[in-house]
Amino acid sequence: MENRNSSSQYLNGLRSSIASVFKLIHPNNTPYAEVDCIKEFFEAKRKFEFIIPTKEKFQTWDLDVLTYYTKKKWPATDHNTMSLYYLQIKTILVMCMTTFGRPRSDVGIILYQDETQVKSQIFGLLKDEDLCLVRILHSFIDRTKHLRSSLPDNHTLFLKFIFDPNKVGSVSPGTVATWIKICMKEAGINTNKTYKPHSLRSASSTKAVENGITIPNVKKHGNLSQQAFTFEKYYLNHIQPRLPTRK
User: Fold this and answer.
1) Residue 6: closest CA among 39, 36, 42
2) pTM for this structure?
3) Could you tell me if 89 and 135 lie in one domain?
4) Which of 100, 177, 225, 229 has the largest count of CB atoms under 10 Å?
């Protein structure tokens, strides 16, 4: 009874610990987590547990913070001279901001040659060359052609060990997310507990609505269902007020 007010997450941790020991002692018995009374208890616990959401659940950070950081650190005039590593980082950031793509499950798994890609988007040239995905991506692909000749046909667009031709290969989605998190932190976004790399999807799509793009068009661009309310529920948030910068 002493744990009756504990959260489902805490109790689930206890269940996992007990289940591990139970499996060692009774290897032939039904797994502890699959016992009916245990399953019924956790199902009931989840139904009657109410978690008060934090204010961060209803807010997102201002995308202007990251666009300013990107433009200042990697101006378009340096696309042909900056290191491939930094050109790749900039390409990833601008792609996430422009496509509303998920760092891991969208941008992190894009193949260099993908004829089976279901999702599609159309882009044009922007006057702001610092944030023009078409120009940045063209430069990135052109400068990495020599690294791809020895890679398998199904290699990813973005590469690990891009600075070492002997080790270069397909990047992992987790690495892409880590790069984004580092940039967000450097830009001044709270990445400790508040905002994760996935929040870039919310920040960019919310900024589009703030700038006058209709919600149906944002959904279409982000490959989100027009019928469902996924965008309104999980991604469209109030933009957190920016603190004045010190001069």
Assistant:
1) 42
2) 0.74
3) yes
4) 100
